[in-house]
Amino acid sequence: MNRNPTLKIYTIAYLIFLYAPIILLPLFAFNDSKVIAFPLQGFTTNWFAEMWADQQLFVAFRNSLLIAVTSSIFATILGIFAARASTRYKFPGKGGILGLIMLPMVLPEMIFAMALLVVLVAVGVPLSLFTIILGHVLLCTPFAMAILTSAFQSLDRSLEEAAYDLGETPASTFRLIILPLVMPGIISSLLICFTISLDEFIISYFLGGNQTVLSVYIFGQFRFPAKVPAVMALGFILVCVSICLLTIAEYFRRRGIAKTGGKDTGGFL
Question: Whole-prediction pTM value?
Answer without folding.
Answer: 0.80
